[in-house]
Design a protein that fits this description.
- The structure is a single chain.
- By secondary structure, the protein is α+β, with helices and mostly antiparallel strands.
- Strand 9 and strand 10 form a beta hairpin.
- The strands form five sheets. Strands 11, 12, 13, 14, 15, 16, 17, 18 and 19 form a nine-stranded mixed sheet that branches. Strands 1, 2, 5, 6 and 7 form a five-stranded mixed sheet that branches.
- It starts with 13 loop residues before the first helix and ends in a 7-residue tail after the last strand.
- Helix 2 packs across helix 3, helix 6 crosses helix 7 (about 290-310) and helix 7 (about 290-310) runs antiparallel to helix 10 (about 370-385).
- The chain is built from ten helices and 21 strands.
- The chain folds into two domains: about 5-145, Schlafen, AAA domain (Methyltransferase, Cobalt-precorrin-4 Transmethylase, Domain 2, 2-Layer Sandwich), CATH 3.30.950.30; about 155-400, no CATH class.
Length: about 400
């Protein structure tokens, strides 16, 4: 039987593919997670069902390999790679509801043709519809889901989202600064599939296991990770600055306070006390997009390292909360005004007291080198509210010139 290829490393080239065929890693036997395709079907309905069904637990469609009878080695039937990718992308976006986001690995055989690995991650929005039915997979192919099974999945999604929102509320309520002058940032990442000792099994219970891993997490952040110290916590460990043992907040350190905690279950909790500051001069609070963006990136980097260490491949619940925003201005815009190099003509101030956002992310969203999609889903609405509709690029620390403020 063909192996579960969801964790198969990216196939490097044609020689690598041939070795996988020769050693039996890839065979002609279809199963729950793998399906070989000689070519795309004409109308696309069958492909839409494949994508919808695979998205339930994740899987791989391989185009350009022809299944052979009696388990014989699959034959190479190279497909037009660009045309196949374009067609599958369109089907995934239009023929499946909600849309799915496949990833493509190309193996060139020459002349723009080759073998195409279409990887469909387990979707946080599953089950998905195609041809007016919800679909799942067995070792014998695609099957329509029973109504009761669909209701069970949808109810589980609602419960998961409600649990994520409640966990974020608890995290925000546990702010170490009970009396604050600034606006604070809270970022929470929770694996959807619960496992109380997921990260603990990989790291161990000793200080010598947690400390190096937290140091690696700190190095993954581009900003604000210097001078962080290690602390053990109930159910995990943390990198901190400006917060004492036991998560006790000393006076006068609010703006500098940072706390990145990893749980034994692989969860990530990030706290920052300087997301919104109130300067001594008149003008009102200032929202620091650089700090908010950098700290959120650090939390996502921690999630990526948890994935790499534990092999967790299922979706995540992500939540973010920023307090103290009412009347706040963009710190970047204010600095440009001071330098007399930028005049928007409009005094943009945030109208709400807080910003709160909860989303579901795929593991692939976190492991990207620059997770722009995850950042935008969490922070895009906040940054547009601070800057008159313009989009802030956290990787270049600037609002995009092609989308100027109103």
């Amino acid at each position: 039987m063909t192996a579960d290829l969801r964790r198969l490393p990216v196939v490097q080239d044609l020689d690598h593919l041939r070795r996988l065929l020769e050693d039996g890693t890839i065979t002609s036997a279809e199963n729950r997670y793998v399906d070989l395709k000689r070519k795309l079907d004409g109308k696309g309905e069958s492909t839409a069902k494949d994508l919808a069904a695979m998205a339930l637990h994740g899987g791989v469609l391989i185009y350009g390999l022809d299944e052979q009878p009696n388990g014989a080695r699959p034959g190479l039937t190279p497909v037009d790679l660009d045309a196949t990718i374009e067609r599958i992308s369109n089907i995934a976006a239009i023929g499946v509801s909600p849309p799915v986001r496949p990833r493509f690995d190309r193996i060139e055989t020459g002349g723009g043709r080759g073998v195409l690995f279409v990887r469909i991650p387990a979707s946080p929005l599953a089950p998905h519809q195609a041809a007016n039915r919800y679909w799942c997979r067995s070792d014998h192919g695609n099957q329509p889901m029973a109504d009761e099974e669909v209701r069970r999945y949808l109810a589980a999604h609602r419960a998961s989202r409600d649990g994520g929102a409640a966990a974020l509320d608890t995290f925000v309520a546990d702010d170490p600064f009970t009396v604050s002058q600034n606006g604070h940032l809270h970022v929470l990442l929770l694996p959807v599939v619960e496992d109380p000792t997921r990260l603990l099994r990989s790291i161990g219970t000793q200080h010598r296991g947690w400390a190096p891993f937290l140091e690696e997490v700190g190095r993954a952040g581009d900003h604000g990770t210097r001078h962080l110290s290690f602390q053990t916590r109930a159910g995990g460990a943390a990198l901190v600055r400006g917060i004492g043992p036991g998560r006790v907040a000393p006076e006068g350190r609010e703006a500098a306070a940072q706390d990145l905690e990893l749980g034994e279950d692989g969860s990530v909790r990030l706290y920052c006390g300087g997301a919104v500051t109130v300067p001594q001069s008149e003008g009102g609070p200032l929202a620091n997009e650089v700090v908010i963006g950098a700290m959120t990136r650090l939390a996502l980097s921690a999630g990526r390292l948890v994935i790499e260490r534990t092999g967790y491949s299922q979706p995540w619940l992500a939540g973010i909360h920023v307090s103290g925003l009412r009347g706040a201005q963009s710190l970047i815009e204010e600095r440009r005004r001071e330098q007399a190099s930028f005049e928007s003509g409009v005094d943009h101030r945030y109208s709400g007291n807080e910003y709160r956002k909860g989303v579901e992310l795929l593991g692939d969203d976190l492991v990207e080198d620059k997770p722009r999609g995850a950042i935008d889903s969490l922070l895009g609405e906040l940054f547009r509210g601070l800057h008159g509709g313009a989009n802030y690029d956290v990787f270049n620390e600037t609002y995009r010139r092609d989308d100027p403020p109103l």
